[in-house]
Amino acid sequence: MGLLDLFKRKKTEITDDLSLKWLEVDMHSHLIPGIDDGSKTLEESIELVKRLHGYGLRKLITTPHIMSEFYRNTPEIIGLGLEDLRLGLAKEGIDIEIHAAAEYYLDEIFLEKVQGGEKLLTVKDNLVLVETGFINRPQMLLEIFFAMEMNGYRPIFAHPERYQYLIQDKKLLSDLFDREIYFQINLLSLTGFYSKPVKSFAEMLVDEGKVRFFGTDCHNHRYLDMLESLPASKYFGKIQQLDLLNRNL
């Protein structure tokens, strides 16, 4: 732990204790060790799950990246990693329900999977968590969403508040609203963890009633250190009153 991390821990300790009991289920995280940019070891994963459980969550659906260029995970790789994590948690006596889906990167390879009828990992039923790059709008974004819907899947758009192209493109945002695409916001966005513009956009989406899911997007302890400052956010009370779908997962 570096000096910066120590400072962050001390800073979060002066806020109210974080409770996510109202959320019940975290459906976006990277807790399977060693397969993406999240947790690196089983020991780290166990400690992260222990902290998440301590916030009052009753269930975790962890979502490793599937990206054709960087993280070539498969349902088999993810399933084996989940099994190892479950065994590790059982040995430590941590009693929390944990499942795995995936966070799919939207590109031509993913579109081929959908159009080819490949079975996707779902958060529940037909719900699939998807992401894009942060800067440039994918040219096939709406086409991919349409293909998913035609093949029986309902996309959940991961952390749309972090996409610079979406912040700047009001027409695209309106199109996504009209298509009733599910938006999943990162709780950390409301703390200013990513940037002020991201925080402002997340707050706007909350105000407009467009958020159906929240997730921690937990990758490591630094994420949870900052997450513990969430009770200081002026939106912490407001998001607890939203009609969220997390509780139905």
Automatic annotation (TrEMBL):
Record's keyword annotation contains Phosphoprotein: no
GO molecular function: manganese ion binding; protein tyrosine phosphatase activity
Domain of life from the UniProt record: Bacteria
EC numbers on record: 3.1.3.48
Catalytic EC class: hydrolase
Protein keywords: Hydrolase
Catalytic activity: O-phospho-L-tyrosyl-[protein] + H2O = L-tyrosyl-[protein] + phosphate
Family: Belongs to the metallo-dependent hydrolases superfamily. CpsB/CapC family.
Official protein name in the record: protein-tyrosine-phosphatase
